[in-house]
Amino acid sequence: MKISEMSWTQVEGYLKRSDLCVLPLGSTEQHAGLSLSVDSILAERVAVEAAEPLGVPVFPVVPYGVTPYFLAYPGTVSLRVETYVALTRDILGGLYRQGFRRIVMVNGHGGNAPAGSFAVEWMADHPGTQVKFHNWWSSPATMAKVQETDPVASHASWMENFPWTRLPGDLPTQRKPMIDLNRMRAMDPEKVREYLGDGNFGGLYQRDDAEMQAIWDAGVAETRVVIEGPWG
């Protein structure tokens, strides 16, 4: 259930029987011909679908993350690491004050790793709390399904092209050669754009929706296991 579809009294009632909640983390960054909100859309949707049968509330996705590499692409917004950590601190602090003690961060963007590192530190300062940082797309079962479908998968390629992240219009049909990630990491944003072109790191731009649904189902199931526990 979405917090955005609950009243404060409903949340108060929920907290009398459980202290578990889910916080999706996304970003706003280039994804070639896909939505700039791919990471946010996927993180929130997988969190909601995973949590729904369990009756666990899901907070609105945090739509901005750490993505400095893509700043030369219009529409990309990147937070500084210190800003992102401060934001994470305030959100966790707010959840703690309300009475949540078990929190699952469902992350959809690799650049958000500082939130996971900070959560470990935060737990040490808040005894009795538990925070799980779950990279839904790269977790074992989900990534195994991706690799089984097509081992050439990357940022802004077919593996992020779901019906709910796709925009109207035709996409290239060829398989783009994989980039050199280490080389890209040594570039400034303008050089990154020059090197990447449209933004796809490599691979096909789209695969069959039935294949994508199978990957999605694996991601939802794996995320649900993380939410269910065990805890502590």
From TrEMBL:
Organism, as annotated: Rubellimicrobium roseum
Domain of life per record: Bacteria
Entry protein name: Creatininase family protein
GO biological process: riboflavin biosynthetic process
Molecular function GO labels: hydrolase activity, acting on carbon-nitrogen (but not peptide) bonds, in linear amides; metal ion binding
Lineage: Bacteria, Pseudomonadati, Pseudomonadota, Alphaproteobacteria, Rhodobacterales
InterPro entries, alphabetized: Creatininase-like_sf (IPR024087), Creatininase/forma_Hydrolase (IPR003785)
SUPFAM superfamilies: Creatininase
Name of a matching Pfam family: Creatininase
Keywords assigned by UniProt, alphabetized: Hydrolase, Metal-binding, Zinc
Cofactor requirements of the protein: Zn(2+)
Similarity annotation: Belongs to the creatininase superfamily.
